[in-house]
Amino acid sequence: MNSQEARGAYRSIWTAMMDVPFEQKWIDAGGISTRFARCGPAGAPAVLFLHGTAGSWEGFSANLRELSQHFECYAIDMIGSGFTDKPDHDYEIAHYVRHVADFMTAVGLQNSSLVGCSLGAWVAARFALTHPERTDKLVLLSAAGLFANASNMDRIRTRRTAAVENPVWENIKPIFDHLIHEEHNRIDDIVAVRQAVYKQPRMIETMQHVLCLQEPQIRQRNLLSEDEWKAISASALVVGSLADKDEYLETARRVSQLIPRAQYVEMERVGHWPHFEDPQRFNVLCRDFLR
């Protein structure tokens, strides 16, 4: 018996998605060719999933089966990320927000709930401020955007740069050692997707555009002030990951106190990707909150 058999059923992106009626497509969103996955009944309340720094929609593969039974789900590769277009300029929060709005318009969504992880949570929060009429509810995972942490910014910049300059497995895998708490959840194909993304042409230049938010001056001007978090009118579910004891847990706890209509829940034995590590619990929490 191998180690995978000893710990239970084989897990991959495909085992999560093999019985989900879904489509993967590209669409022009404000001039950006945007890769996305869609599933769930057309016309049901919409939910849009936003990944973290230099990620892709596959990070939400463990959530789409359950949530698409109740909602029309869209998981996108944000501007500069995954297999979406990578224009030659720095990507600040306003660029991500504009891309999300343009994507919603392109697929015909007047409004949607937003599920964001890390950078995606930061983008979702800013979107809720600038487009309150288009925001139903927020689910914020590993929330970011309240303050800057120099050591965390340096870690992200160092690991992502090394990975894209030499995208061998040994440089890609350490990214997930931080994102995912338990080793058996760091499945090979989620690493392989990231490796394929980082092997694309011009990714070294693109990564510098993505990593602009890890530069102190740029990050500072993109943060949401406490008063801005207080001004978010949408209902929010804020998830704190207890094994992600970094700025993200601190941010989650604080913004859940600032957002007027926020609920806060903590999840044990999960790192930066709680939705991926413990999808059974997260999917129920998310489903019940969004319903």
Structure notes:
This protein is an alpha/beta fold. It has helices at 3-7, 13-17, 64-67, 93-107, 119-130, 150-165, 169-179, 188-198, 203-210, 216-222, 226-230, 247-258, 274-277, 279-290; strands at 22-29, 32-39, 46-50, 72-76, 112-117, 135-141, 235-241, 262-267. The protein has a single domain, classed as Rossmann fold, CATH 3.40.50. It has 14 helices and eight strands. Strands 1-2-4-3-5-6-7-8 form an eight-stranded mixed beta sheet, sandwiched between helices. Helix 6 (150-165) runs antiparallel to helix 7. It is globular, with a radius of gyration of 18 Å. The model is unreliable at 1-7 (pLDDT under 50).
Secondary-structure blueprint of this entry?
Blueprint: H1 3-7, H2 13-17, E1 22-29, E2 32-39, E3 46-50, H3 64-67, E4 72-76, H4 93-107, E5 112-117, H5 119-130, E6 135-141, H6 150-165, H7 169-179, H8 188-198, H9 203-210, H10 216-222, H11 226-230, E7 235-241, H12 247-258, E8 262-267, H13 274-277, H14 279-290
Parallel strand pairs: 3-4, 3-5, 5-6, 6-7, 7-8
Antiparallel strand pairs: 1-2, 2-4
Helix pairs in contact: 4-5, 6-7, 6-9, 7-8
